[in-house]
Amino acid sequence: MTEDQVLLGLGLIVVLAAGSQVLAHRLRIPALIVLLPVGFTAGALTDDVNPERLLGSTFSPLVSLAVAVILYDAGLGLDLKRFTAHTRRVVVRLIWLGTLLTCASAALVAIPLLGMSQGAAVMLGAILVVSGPTVVGPLLTFVRPTERLQRILVWEGSLIDPVGGILGALVFHGVTAGGHGGFGSRFWQFLLSSAVGVAGGIVGAAVLTVALRRLRLGEVLGTTVQLAAVVGVAAACDVVRDDTGLIAAVLMGLAVANLPGSEATARRPFFETLVNLVIGLLFISISATVSPHSLRHVLLPTLGLVAVLVLVTRPLVAALSALRTDLTAGERRFLGWMAPRGIVAAATASTFSATLVDKGVGGAAKILPATFVVIVATVTLYGLSAAPMARRLGVVRSARSRPLLVGGDPWVVDLGRALRSAGLDVVMWAGRETERDSIRAAGIELAPGELFAAATGTGAELEGLTGVLLLTGEDDFNALAATNLEGAVEGTVYRLGSPAEGQGVIAPYARGQVLFDPDLTGPELARRHARGARLVTHHVDGALPAGHRMLFLVRGDGRLLPVTPTGGPTPRPGDIAVLLSA
Fold this sequence. Notes:
The protein is α/β, with parallel strands linked by helices. It has helices at 3-27, 32-45, 51-55, 59-76, 85-114, 118-127, 133-143, 147-176, 183-214, 219-240, 244-258, 268-288, 292-295, 299-321, 329-335, 343-358, 367-393, 410-421, 433-441, 451-455, 475-485, 522-530, and strands at 403-406, 427-429, 445-446, 467-470, 492-496, 513-515, 535-539, 549-554, 560-562, 576-580.
C-alpha cells in the first residue's frame, strides 16, 4: 500500500471508532452493537481499513499488547475487599466450569453444524470461552443489577480473559503440532504458562508500586509509567510464552488497585479514555477483516451454535456454579443470562485462524467469521434483553437514592433528618469528632474511615451510594473533594457554591455540580439556620408554602433531585419537597 493509503486507512479507523462510540452513547446502547457492523461494512466497502494490509505482520502483536492494556484497566476495577466468600466461590466455579463446558459444547456442536475438523472445532471452542470486561461492564452499567451480581460478572469477565487466552494458545500449538503430546503434557504446559504470567505480574506490580509510591510522578507521568510498564511486561511475557502477558496485565492492575499508597484511582480517567479508544480501534479493525463472502455459509449454522451456548451451556454453568450459595433464584437465573463475547475472543480468533488456514486445518477458515457472528449475536441479544430480564427477575438495584452527605454543621444534620423523613437511606460523613457525635445523636448512619474510602464504597456496608453532597463550610475542601471524587463514585458529585466575595484557591477551578441558588452558599445557609430557619419536608399537592425555598425534590420512586443555579426540578403531585423555611 502507498503512504497515502496507509494514512487514509488509519485516519478512517480512528474516525469510525470514535464516531461509532458517540452514536452508541446517543442511542444509549452498548458501543459494540455499533462498532462491529460499522467495521464490517467499512471492510466490505474498502480495503483501506483492513489492518492486515495496513500493518502486515505487526497487527497481531499490536492486538496482544492492546488487549493487555485493556485487561490492566479491568484489573484496576477489581476490589479485593468486595471479593467475599460466596462471591469468590461462584466466580471460581464460573471460570473453571465455564471453561470446560463452553469449550466442550462449542466444539461438539461446531463439528456437525459448521463442518469443521476436530482441531478447528476445539480451537473455536477455546476462543468462545472468554467473555470480557469490555462488553460486560457497559452492559451492567446500563442494566444496573444488584451489587453482588455486578461484582460476580465483572470478576468473571476480567479473570476468564487471560485463562481463555492461554487455553487458546495451548490448543493452537496442539493443533499445529498435529495433536502430539498427551493430556499430562498439555496440563504442564498450562501450568508453565500460568507461572510465567504470574511472575511477570509480580515483577510489574513491584515496579509500579515503587514508581507510584516513592517517585511521586504526578498524574500525567504516573499514567505514562503505568502504560509503559504494562506494555513492557506483557511483551516480555509473550516472548517467553504466548498470551501470558494477559495474566501479567490483570495481576498488575489488581495489585495496583489494592495495595495501599499506589494512588491509582486518581489516574484512572486518562486510562479509561485510552482504553475506550483502544477498544474502538480493535473492534473496527478486526471486524473489517471479516468479508461478506466468508459469512455466506457460516451465518445460519453459527446462530445454531449461539442458541446452544445461550440456552443450554450458560444456564447449566450458572446453575452448577451457584450450588450451595446464598444467591437468590433471580440472581442465579440472571447469571445464566449474561455471557456476551468481546474483544479477546475477536483478537484470539484473528491471531490464530490465519495460521491454521495456512497449515491446512479443515474448517479453520470459518473460525474468524463464526467468532464474529457469535460476538454480534450475543452482544445484541444480551444488550437488548438483559435490562427487561433483570427487571422481570427482580435483580435491578432500586432507583431510590442513597446519598452521602459530607459535613457536620447543624444545618447539614438537619438536612440529613429531612431527607431521611422523606424516605431516603441517608449516610453522612464528617471530619470532626463533635460533628460525628451530632450525626450519631440524630440517628443517621455514619460512614466510617476517611472520606475517599467512604465515598468509593470500600466497605460492604456502604455499597449502593448514588451520589455525594459536599456540604462542609470549607469551599476549598468541597472543591478539592469534588475534583477527586468525580468519576470515582457512582452517581453525581454535588458541592456548595462559593461566595462571590471569596472564592478560595481551588474552588473556581473545581469539578462537581454546584448546589442551590447562587445566594445560598454554605455560610449563608449556616447563618439562616442559626437565626431559626429549618429544613422541612412538604408533600406536594399544589403550590409550595409561601416564604420557603426549595432545595431538593424527592420523586415518588425515591430519586433525589437537587436545585442548582441553572434551575430546579418541577414539583409533581406525590413528590416530597425539602424546603428551607424562612
